[in-house]
Design brief:
With about 350 residues, the protein is an alpha/beta fold. The chain has 2 domains: about 70 residues, no CATH class; about 240 residues, UDP-N-acetylmuramoyl-L-alanine:D-glutamate ligase (3-Layer(aba) Sandwich). A 9-stranded mixed sheet has the order 3-2-1-4-5-6-7-8-9. The protein is globular and about 45 Å long. Keywords: Kinase, Transferase. InterPro entries: HMP/HMP-P_kinase_dom, PM/HMP-P_kinase-1, Ribokinase-like. Its EC number is 2.7.1.49. It is an enzyme of class 2 (transferase).
Length: about 350
């Protein structure tokens, strides 16, 4: 793998991270901030980028000067004739529903894809009327609308990977499956069947159709425990339950299935990655006591699509996506936004489009 794509978890799960207190210039001229950063990281057990955010208030004037200096440097580099050659940017297509509060659906996908270094394109599957309190209604597009959107996107910006979210009707499922039948890139499927507020987003009668047509084009399926329970017709609540149905998950015939751990009971969260012709892998994390967890499934699946587009192997991409979501929850604990459950802090550290 190219060293340019190797992540550095000490600061960020992305390439070339920049946060005000991690910049070499600032740490050279302000050793006190550097020491405080290390102390906060150790004492509060925060990732470095969360510590940066925590401490940035104390050094904000100096931090802003460094940010301005970096922006000037970036502009100078872009204006350099030697750097004027066009460079490839990876794009990720999100096929998902609209959410006007941007906590879930296509807007949440866009934030996660951008934060992980790729360019987001979109095909809207429906117009959902929702907020943090729940889904109020869903308006559907006429037949052919999704196909037309796909044709327009593919004609201009061919996606390096695709994330499929909510597809509430069989006609939409058919249009997506037919159009992507010959697509050779990664397709990440987030089987959005029930909203986090408990609203059914897919009719039971449509699931068999969904399984036949969408599972067949998926590179990786990302159900949470509730969704997997609906798929298998069994109540699953913990890691032991997940392990007990491993053989049934393999029988779905999908190259990879990442069973998300957010709905697992207890403080220790475990996601399970089941790959065809490979041993089962586990990704562990600690539960974060936060009310701002809306859209975590959207964030994880779209971040996973980004990391696959960037060339990471499946297990590594799943680990990176899981860490991205974990840190976005950590850094979004104190967000005060609206009257209901809030979103993650998708942009908890600065990031730019990765150029190749």
């Amino acid at each position: 793998m190219s060293p340019l794509l190797t992540p550095s978890f000490r600061t960020s799960p992305f390439l070339s991270p920049f946060t005000p207190l991690s910049h070499p210039f600032l740490t050279r001229i302000n050793p006190l901030c550097k020491g405080l950063r290390k102390g906060v990281t150790t004492f509060l057990q925060l990732p470095f980028n969360a510590a940066d955010y925590f401490l940035s208030q104390a050094c904000s004037p100096l931090s802003q000067n460094v940010l301005s200096l970096k922006k000037m440097t970036d502009i100078q580099q872009l204006n350099n004739p030697e750097n004027s050659r066009s460079k490839k940017v990876k794009s990720v297509l999100s096929i998902a529903g609209f959410d006007g509060t941007a906590g879930a659906g296509s807007y949440a996908d866009a934030k996660s894809i951008a934060a992980t270094g790729c360019y987001a394109t979109h095909v809207l599957s429906c117009l959902s009327i929702q907020n943090g309190e729940g889904v109020k209604d869903i308006h559907y597009f006429p037949n052919g609308a999704i196909q037309q959107q796909l044709e327009a996107v593919f004609a201009d910006i061919y996606p390096d990977s695709i994330k499929i979210g909510l597809l509430p009707q069989q006609q939409q499922m058919q249009e997506v499956a037919d159009f992507l039948a010959d697509y050779k890139g990664f397709i990440v499927v987030d089987p959005v069947m029930v909203s986090s507020s408990g609203h059914a987003l897919m009719k039971a009668a449509d699931y068999a159709f969904y399984r036949k047509h969408i599972f067949s084009i998926a590179s990786v399926l990302c159900p949470n425990l509730d969704e997997l329970s609906l798929m298998l017709g069994k109540k699953l609540t913990n890691l032991a339950d997940m392990q007990a149905v491993e053989s049934e998950v393999r029988q779905l015939g999908i190259p990879a299935v990442l069973v998300k751990g957010g709905h697992v009971e207890g403080d220790q969260l475990t996601a399970m990655l089941i790959q065809k012709d490979a041993e089962t892998s586990y990704i562990h994390s600690q539960r974060i006591a936060s009310e701002n967890t809306r859209g975590t499934g959207c964030a994880l699946s779209s971040a996973l699509a980004s990391y696959l587009a960037l060339g990471h192997p499946m297990l590594e991409a799943c680990q990176l996506a899981s860490q991205y979501v974990h840190q976005a929850i950590v850094c979004g604990q104190d967000l005060a936004l609206g009257k209901s459950r809030g979103p993650l802090d998708h942009f908890f550290t600065a990031s730019t489009l990765l150029r190749f």
